[in-house]
Amino acid sequence: MQLSKNSNKHKQMKRHNFSAGPCILPQEVLLKASEAVMDLNGSGLSLIEISHRSKPFVDIMEKARALALELLGLEGKGYKALFLQGGASTQFLMVALNLLEKRAGYLNTGTWSDKAIKEAQIYDDIYEVASSKNAGYNYIPKGYEIPADYDYFHCTSNNTIFGTQMKEFPNSPIPMVCDMSSDIFSRQLDFSKFDLIYAGAQKNMGPAGTTLVVVKEDILGKVSRKIPSMMDYKVHISKSSMFNTPPVFAVYTSMLTLEWLKNLGGIKAIEEVNEKKARLLYSEIDLNPLFKGYSVKEDRSIMNATFTLANEDLKETFDTMWKEAGIEGLNGHRSVGGYRASMYNALPLESVQVLVEVMSELESKA
Ligand SMILES: *Cc1c(COP(=O)(O)O)cnc(C)c1O
Question: How many CB atoms lie under 10 A from the CB of residue 280?
């Protein structure tokens, strides 16, 4: 009750949050999550102090898993959804442990792909089907071949740091694994093209602490090595994502966000908003002579827009202006510099409008 009374105050305090991750979440999700921390659905108990084996939490886990498959259009197609721990970074290794027998092919499109390759290298020689490393990862390689006799092909759908995004996916002759951490649930794709999708929750789905894994069951169980239980997808599937104590708060809050998305009209509806936000910002970057986009136009991410100032002398002025406008989290990743505007699902169009106004105001001042 008290929390609801304060919700207006929270609204006023809310800044335009362009953070790359952990990311902005819908206000109503934050409110419901904080209420559940105090009292889960009037039970007199907190979400974070009940048994994860109790009916209320088992229901939450099952709902979260079902919503993930429903939103991706993968119900009844042989897929299982899991909410695991250890972040997307643990998936770099878990994918290799579960699927890599002889050799795998990786598309290297950025820091995260590079890290995924490094982890898989522990188990076997990895073949890079293509890489944009020499160009500072400012584009997505195309027209590469995926060897048909490899175990799997791995790609990263959106490059959070460099601001590029795969618009098309290959018709892979072997199982296709994709790290979708920073654009899952943001745009419509034929998700059944993929055999394994993973995503750390904190970019576009919820708070840090859980990782969604959506895996087609029939690709599992084909490697000869022994897999430690916590690293074995089959173990997690057989225990309905409850092999050990799950991160209850992160799963619940992700479930609320997925519910929010479903009520909005699902991925189709949010994609329209996301495209509108991206068009607005990129057109300002292109039209305003004071700014330059980092990545090549055809591969620009609708989630993370990266750009720099044409004249670094304006940095102090620009930084003061956006901070005063209530904008947060606009600095580029330390490896790229410049600016990065992350426009995840919960970021309102209005926040992008504010940023664009500040950018055009800078032009009129300079
Ligand atoms: C952030 C990010 C990761 C790392 O996620 P963690 O959950 O911190 O391990 C991996 N891949 C991509 C594409 C990311 O954006």
Answer: 15
